[in-house]
């Protein structure tokens, strides 16, 4: 038995066959039974020790907790007291446009009306009502860590493409985040997959990438920023130039569009 803080609030949102992921998805459980404040879950994947301090991610369940937590309010009050107003407030683990609207109301009350709201896409419920969330947010973040766990890694590229395209149609800022240059951050040498990822993000025309672990837990944060800027600038210019050229078949490779 593992005691989980907040489990009593989580139980009403859980259903049979809902998944419960611990340790960034390295442990996967499936809910078999619900009994009051107890959950009986079956281990589906993983074989590492589970502790009460480990985080839990519920990809199939909406959150019972408010989007703005008491520590969030304390931080925003402290910022307002020092006149240190942020440009954006990002909302984690939202599942509906109501989450965005309620959070915006609190943020405006504490920080004023000029602070913009960014909705982070990390759950299936959020993806399913993406158009409505886009209407209420000033921008969105494709938070690929938890989102990849939620939708499945095979579907993550498709979901990223759809979210970026939807944000561009709505003229809303879109950020792509998580695991962009983590190998480069550790070794100083980019993986070919990292180069392809940056190229794809540029081609999809996302507005911003966010380097997380690459700049927070890295021996070379400045190099990561410089390298990402170099690749994105080159790729953006290349695709913009290609858009100005007439589309024609290559004489050497008839199945490739130049």
Description:
This protein has 258 residues and is α/β, with parallel strands linked by helices. It folds into three domains: 7-57, PK beta-barrel domain-like (M1 Pyruvate Kinase, Domain 3); 62-174, Phosphoenolpyruvate-binding domains (TIM Barrel, Alpha-Beta Barrel), CATH 3.20.20.60; 179-244, no CATH class. The chain has helices at residues 7-10, 70-81, 97-111, 124-128, 130-136, 144-151, 156-169, 182-187, 192-204, 213-216, 221-244, and strands at residues 19-22, 27-35, 38-45, 56-57, 88-91, 116-121, 139-143, 173-177, 208-210. Strands 5-6-7-8-9 form a five-stranded parallel beta sheet. It has a four-stranded antiparallel beta sheet with strand order 3-2-1-4, with no helix packed on it. Helix 9 (192-204) crosses helix 11 (221-244). Mean pLDDT is 87; it is low at 250-258.
Kindly state the mean pLDDT as a whole number?
87
CATH architecture of the largest domain: Alpha-Beta Barrel
Read across the widest sheet, the strand sequence of neighbours is 5-6-7-8-9
Give Rg in angstroms. 21 Å
Report the oligomer.
single chain
Keywords, separated by commas or semicolons:
single chain, 258 residues, alpha/beta, M1 Pyruvate Kinase, Domain 3, TIM Barrel, 3 domains, five-stranded parallel sheet, four-stranded antiparallel sheet, disordered C terminus
Blueprint of the fold:
Elements lengths: L6 H4 L8 E4 L4 E9 L2 E8 L10 E2 L12 H12 L6 E4 L5 H15 L4 E6 L2 H5 L1 H7 L2 E5 H8 L4 H14 L3 E5 L4 H6 L4 H13 L3 E3 L2 H4 L4 H24 L14
Parallel strand pairs: 5-6, 6-7, 7-8, 8-9
Antiparallel strand pairs: 1-2, 1-4, 2-3
